[in-house]
Amino acid sequence: MPRNIVRHLVQFGFDRLYTSFAWSYDFVAAAASLGEWKVWGAAALSFLPHEIFINGAPLLEIAHGTGHLHARLREQGMHIVGVDRSAQMGRLTRTRCGKDAALARTDALALPFMNAAFAAVVCTFPASFVFETHALREVTRVLRTGGAYVVVPYAALRGRDLLARSIAFAYRITGQASSNALLEAHTRTAFENAGMHFETHRVQTPRADVTVWVGRRP
């Protein structure tokens, strides 16, 4: 089967994971990460501003998904608001976090918040729309001066066992691992055009190298 057809089929499947098959998202993510999915997402925590943890400064999570990171931050007493454009993801996160969770169904292209409302914004394993110019400008708008936009875009498995190599091959054949350097260069330019300084970091987990991008509003 031609590779472009495979990619289209995979993209179609991914799209369904955020909507009608959202109930299966955690199972698929756990399999694709060899059980490290939550650990990969938690790589963002080290790059959040200290005032989030010390002073309870407000934090926004874009594309909260099934809500694991959202729940963890709430458990740590964070003042966190979450947005996702998937109604199914919203229901899963509210079930996980409780009825009092501050969640909104909205698009990152039009965040319903005042200017400089948040000390930080976090987003883990997002769809490509969050890197669109208008979405990044929206993030810059709602960030306070000195605030950080912390994104975990992808991770690379290090293992050489058969399972790890099979998953890595699946990433390559679907085009998900073939253009990370190009994507990073494009994203750096997009962040800078939106008014943020751009940093790249790598965080090691037992089985993977996790990439973390940090945009800082000067």
Question: Can you characterise this structure?
Answer:
The chain is of the alpha/beta class and 218 residues long. It has a single domain (3-216), classed as 3-Layer(aba) Sandwich (Rossmann fold). The protein is 41% helix and 24% strand. It contains 9 helices and 7 strands; from the N terminus they run ααααβαβαββαβααββ. It has a 7-stranded mixed β-sheet with strand order 3-2-1-4-5-7-6. Helix 7 links the parallel strand 4 (118-124) and strand 5. The N and C termini lie far apart (48 Å). Residues 5-10 and 161-178 have low confidence and may be disordered.
Number of domains: 1
- Can you identify the CATH class? Alpha Beta
Q: In which range does the helix fraction lie?
A: 40-55%
Based on DSSP secondary structure assignment, what is the total number of beta strands? 7
Shape: globular
Task: Report the sheet-strand fraction.
Answer: 15-25%
Class computed from helices, strands and strand pairing: alpha/beta
* CATH fold naming: Rossmann fold
Main beta sheet: strand number and arrangement?
A: 7 strands, mixed
Q: What is the CATH architecture term?
A: 3-Layer(aba) Sandwich
Strand order of the largest sheet: 3-2-1-4-5-7-6
- What sequence of helices (H) and strands (E) makes up the elements? HHHHEHEHEEHEHHEE
How many H/I helices?
Answer: 9
